[in-house]
Known about the structure:
208 residues, 52% helix, globular, single chain, mainly alpha
Amino acid sequence: LLDDKTTSAFRSRALWQAFKDDVPQVVGANASIYPQVLAHARKQKGEQVEWLIDSSKDIELLVHLMSADDIDIHIIHVIRDAPANVNSLEKQGISWPKAVAFWIYRNAVISSLREQIADEKTMTLRYESFTKKTDMFRKQVQKKWGLNVPQNYIKYMSEEEYHNFAGNSIRNKSIESIRYDASWQTEMPWYKKKLIRLLTILPDELWC
Length: 208
């Protein structure tokens, strides 16, 4: 998201050229590069830039960012329905028991980390609710943190130049809309859905 107060890291070619050699360090959880990215963003877009938005899912990186004295971090914890997440991981060759354990572990760690910072700096979003009511959550983020997120932000993101260096295959496709992926409902056997629900119902209710 990019407007007069926010910018995404590596969105402009100049930023990418400045930091492309340090990308492995970022992926390796080196949080010290973020203040440098912010400084370069301000050179490109002006001193009004106040936020860097990082959509990565690296827990180790999150730990480093939280421990950095010069970074004021805000966390949006997006939780996807367990069966849907397991179905997605199975397509990547991960067994469903391991996928369930991974879902529990990741969300438990992030929830624990969130408890270490003030409530006003964290949010929890359900993937299913967010994908179906994106504008409602856009307004919530704006109200909570004072971000100016334009209503047509998807069109804006598609037209802006950006450079991805990590993520799944979606990063190579143009952004046209945010939609709910319901493929797991037909691809996963009913008994597996029931079992996964049984294994994850308590932690799911605890986090949300």
